[in-house]
What does this fold into?
Amino acid sequence: MASRTSTRSRGDGEKYSVLLPTYNERENLPLIVWLLVKYFGESGYDYEIIVIDDGSPDGTLEVAEQLQKIYGEDKIFLRPRAKKLGLGTAYIHGIKHATGSFIFIMDADLSHHPKFIPEFIEKQKEGDYDLVSGTRYQGDGGVYGWDLRRKLISRGANFVTQVLLRPGASDLTGSFRLYKRKVLEGLIERCVSKGYVFQMEMIIRARQLDYSIGEVPISFVDRVYGESKLGGNEIVSFLKGLLTLFATT
Amino acid sequence: MNDIADIRHASSIGLTSYLCAKLSWLSKDGLIPVPVVHREISNIMTKLLEWVFGVSVLGAAWAFVTFDILKMSIPRPYREVAWPMPLYLLVSFGCYSLATVGYRVATFNDCDDAAKELQAQIIEAREDLRKKGLKF
It folds into this structure.
């Protein structure tokens, strides 16, 4: 392990861009940025944080501007959009001005914890993976705040997905991932789904294109500031997305 | 004449294994490496088509054996075993699914420590950011 010098820089020249699509994350954004700065700073890797706000009415952009003043414009970039558009287009919009050769995507609501970032980076280096995916279902991975019903639905849905799609990755709907930049650009071009089915499609297409996929167990802490419910509508749209992928890939 | 009957007999039961054998022959001799064979299949067929193909092949093999379509006088024991196979396989798969999902739900990790750590870090972060001049 390289020792940490006082300038805290790794000489490998790799830069990691973190894409944070946000919508009404005024409470969480400062916290996630603080955690990112903390863990990237400790690890010594070069990074930048790109906040893609979709016109949040709660003033997320204004908080982001304050953070930019605190941490510097070389570390925090703002790429706002006028209104809520899709996740795929948010990534494209964010990548356009990214200067990193690797891209992290993660949720800004604190369900994904930046402490896993050094693990992702090490895993990627270990096998020169094109894609490293955070998994809640293997190893130390897990969740906090889910009742039995939610766990049952989650594992059941994952089982059906594994049987039908045989994706070669244990967690398809997770959105805490590290991509090589070219890989992410290429995959977004090919994907047509929306929402979390989009995340599933990314992995399936990556498989088709023979990209190598590594996995890192992560802990998923559900909704610190609120409750997320999994209702009948979500399940139906998941099944629709799954069957579409089944029939088209 | 017995030889011919035996060969046809064997090949009717081994339809699926014949196909698998053919594919592995291609890859074993290094003519076409296995990942390439697999990629070629997945580039040609969607998962749906793979399933349709697989089910058709197995279904055809089952029908040939059970209903003695080619009139090859398959011995009774074979036919009696083959006849309920689809149902057996379906039930077995159902049991396997229930057991697997049940096991996975039971061993789903609860990250209580992670939640506590996060709460503590949130307090620390808010304090630090306030010092740095952030107006919440």
